[in-house]
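not sure who needs this but someone in the group chat was asking about UDP-glucose 6-dehydrogenase from Daphnia barbata so here u go. i didnt clean anything up, its just raw.
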Amino acid sequence: MAANTSEIPVHKICCIGAGYVGGPTCSVLALKCPDIQVTVVDRNELRIKQWNSEKLPIYEPGLEEIVQQCRGKNLFFSTDMVPALKEADLIFVSVNTPTKTFGLGKGRAADLKFVESCARLIAEVCDTSKIIVEKSTVPVRSAASIINVLKANAKGGVSYQVLSNPEFLAEGTAVNDLTNPDRVLIGGEPSEEGQKAISALSWVYQHWVPSEKIIKMNTWSSELSKLAANAFLAQRISSINAISAVCEATGADVSEVAKAIGLDSRLGPKFLQASVGWGGSCFQKDILNLVYISESLNLTAVAAYWQQVIDMNEYQKSRFGERIVQAMFNTITDKHIAILGFAFKKNTGDTRESPAIHVAKHLLDEGAYLHIFDPKVEKAQILLDLDHSDEGKGVIIHGDPYEAAKDTHALVICTEWDQFITYDYQRIYNSMLKPAFLFDGRKILDHSALVKIGFHVDTIGKRHGQSFQENNWAGTNGI
Ligand SMILES: NC(=O)c1ccc[n+]([C@@H]2O[C@H](COP(=O)([O-])OP(=O)(O)OC[C@H]3O[C@@H](n4cnc5c(N)ncnc54)[C@H](O)[C@@H]3O)[C@@H](O)[C@H]2O)c1
Ligand SMILES: O=c1ccn([C@@H]2O[C@H](COP(=O)(O)OP(=O)(O)O[C@H]3O[C@H](CO)[C@@H](O)[C@H](O)[C@H]3O)[C@@H](O)[C@H]2O)c(=O)[nH]1
């Protein structure tokens, strides 16, 4: 590890926001920097209580072990924000930045009210100069607003530097992403003070991240890079999902097409898995934010371009729901359907913007009874997401996949959990009503084996059980 040449000693770090980013980020920080005391604060008492308990508020592989190792030594979770802020040399702001639900920019712009309230609190309570690290995903030039609020309210003799340090972890792989990041971005002011602040934060990361992966740049580039990275990632999935619709209409197989595309070294194989649609708390919110910024800058063609990535995702989710109904003789009223997987991706209990919610609501609207199983999502969360105050009104949550599938007409895979691949599908088939349908929204199962068992299989980007003649669309394109 390099020496801290910034002239700004970093002994204590405080992070505001003990969520999916603040919790794992600070846990890894504490693990890798035993010489630094890390305190994560949040105004949500329940969340802090959970971070201090045996059952953490979020499920993330490998996280529990790290928390157990560091908690009480150099990692602390607290609701007592003021002393932690006062004592800190560096303050991470890792609060949520959701899409605005009302007012100017409603439905698109990022709501910075939580970030602003953090800035106001910091300025109100801190008696010594601080470096503020913008970890939350924010619109370009947000650091300017934060520094404005801080300067306008700062106590005498106290100065602030604001750095942009966006987080690129993905849920389900957060510990690995934090331990071995592709890159760490640090954006700051070109002034001498700004550069010292960048060096201080850089020194913290250098405890475990190779220097060449720590990229220093101007603040606005750093802020925009985060939005751009998410937009590019989501765009790839929307692109392969668009191709999946063409595959279904023509008889091509999207897995084969994705493989062919991914073998081009200029494109690479990642993020080409066609699916029921992408979800999660970030992609939609961040692209909407980019669309809003572009519109505000009168870049309407740019805004329309990125909006299409979201529109394609909506189309994909709806298309999947409609295919289920069509395949089951155009009606699912009073039919029982098992949904396997409710989280937005595997290895997390997070359901924010999960495509499973969209699919489940579609099936409920069509009059089906749902039997839902997810290995990590809590029952109360599923009911909340489906606007169901209670179980029983068309929705039953099961703790066992075989129980969920029993006596149902169809099985729908909405999340790519590894364990779904290893289930005994003969047993599941035997317990279902016939004809037994299986809709694989994640393309994770062995479809030939399922067809052999007797299932009517339907999946994304591929037709099943049709001859070459039927798949041949020569008649329609005139060849
Ligand atoms: N979830 C991810 O995978 C991910 C990855 C990269 C970046 N991000 C970005 O990081 C930010 C945080 O995301 P998250 O998923 O951790 O959100 P989250 O909702 O899980 O956590 C945010 C926490 O901040 C707390 N909070 C809000 N305002 C506060 C205040 N004024 N004082 C004290 N606590 C306050 C909330 O109580 C909550 O516990 C967002 O901007 C998000 O876009 C998220
Ligand atoms: O080929 C793929 C890859 C992903 N997905 C889906 O896309 C969504 C998002 O997946 P992923 O990006 O792995 O998870 P997130 O936790 O949402 O992480 C994204 O959003 C974070 C928040 O900004 C960023 O930090 C990460 O870099 C970025 O990957 C999930 O529904 C996945 O199932 C697909 O359908 N096909």
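also The CA atoms of residues 4 and 203 lie 6 Å apart. if thats useful
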